[in-house]
Amino acid sequence: MAIPFFLRKGLVVSNHAVNGRSSKSFVDEGRLEVILGAIRPGDLLVIQFAHNDEKATDPVRYTEPWSTYQDYLRLYIEGARARGARPVLATAVERRRFDAGGNAQPSHGDYPAAMRALAEEERVALLDIQALSLQLWQSLGVEETKKYFNWTATEQDNTHFNPPGAIEVARLVARELLRTRVLSPRDLRRLDEAIPESWISWPEAV
C-alpha cells in the first residue's frame, strides 16, 4: 500500500494482496488467475508469501517449504513469464520477535531459504525483505519496534503493521528494487525522505 510513495509518477501499482492467504489458497481461490488475466508484457509481478503457508494445522493454506511452497511459487513465476511479464520474488517480512537478550529473532523457518533457492534456480530477482526487516528490527530494538506494529494498550500485534511500519517496509522494498536493478534510479523517489503517515488509508478487510 505504501510502495507508490517511493515510485515515480506514472508507475501504476495494482495491489492484489489479501489478508490471510497463502501461496496455495490464493491460487485455489482463483486470485492468481485474475492477475494473469490482467497482467501485460513488461509488467512486474512481485510475489511474497510465507506467513500463512506456515499454518501447519490448516490444510487449506499450509505448504511445505521445500516442496509444495516452491511448487506454488512456480505457478506465479511461470504464469507471469508466459505473458511477457517479469516475476520478482520477495521473502516474507519478519514479525516482531525478540529473545530475552533483546536480539531480533527469525520466525519463518525454512520458507525464506526455500524462496532464495527457488529464485536462484529459476533466475528470478529476489528482494530479501526477511533479512532486511530482521536487521531493521534489531537496529530499532524492543521498544522502538512497537511503533511500527499494531501495538497498543489493548492489542499486542507483532505481525501486522501500522502506517509508519508499512511505510518503512515499503522503503525496504523500493531500495531492493533498485539494488537488484529491477527498477532504475529514475523509477524511484523519496527513498531517504520522511513520508507522512496520513498518506496511508487502510482498505476494508476482505
UniProtKB/TrEMBL annotation:
Pfam family, one: Lipase_GDSL_2
Keywords from the UniProt entry: Hydrolase
Matches recorded under Gene3D superfamilies: SGNH hydrolase
Keyword tRNA-binding: no
Superkingdom, natural source: Bacteria
Key word Repeat present: no
PANTHER family: PUTATIVE (AFU_ORTHOLOGUE AFUA_2G17250)-RELATED, RHAMNOGALACTURONAN ACETYLESTERASE
Family the UniProt entry places it in: Belongs to the 'GDSL' lipolytic enzyme family.
Name of the protein in its database record: Secreted rhamnogalacturonan acetylesterase
Origin species: Streptomyces davaonensis (strain DSM 101723 / JCM 4913 / KCC S-0913 / 768)
